[in-house]
Predict the structure.
Amino acid sequence: MDDVKKNAWYIGHRERLRQKFLDDKLTDYELLELLIGYAIPRRDVHLLARNLIEHFGGVYQILTAPIERLIEFDGIGRNTAIFIKVVGQIMLDGYHGGLKEAPLYRNDALLKNYCILKLGGKTVEELHVLYFDADWRMLSDDLHSNGTFNTTVAYPREILRRALDLNARSVVLVHNHPSIGTTFSSQDIAVTEQISNLLKVVDIRLYDHYVVSGEVVYSAKDSNLLK
């Protein structure tokens, strides 16, 4: 295939991808291929998109990966890495704005998507504490602590103090497990119960504790770990 025919084929291929997007029929790697194509317009990025998903584990992990890791990947330059991170940040800001505007109990799916985008690609554990007002709107997302690959630390009294300062009425704990497919550890369960009991004394509810593992969110409430 000469260059003219090759370019003609790829122009047609990208147009087919755009139409599949409009028809809501794209697979994850095709969606990523279409996205990267806008940052790399003169190159076939079909294989690059597949390799990225295979390497990082999914679209969320790519969007949340540190920019240094993206740049290190063969075929992704600095401009493309920045483009990917901008898209991820726009999505994160959109979810964040939605949680501030609408009651949490109507937005469990939105909150879980926010948590995946926030933590899904992290290579070490982070514990975030989300504080909500009496109308179940998010007041703050605080990075409570940074950990290691398989552990992080919670300080229950600091969480209580911060909740009182914000006049919060409910709290959500969120932390990530860099290892894919890992749910609550025995330590996670113990900390969940400890923080729940402490908050309950001042009539603040621990609404849930989420563990983000790749593109999956495990819920303590759904797992009957919260009474």
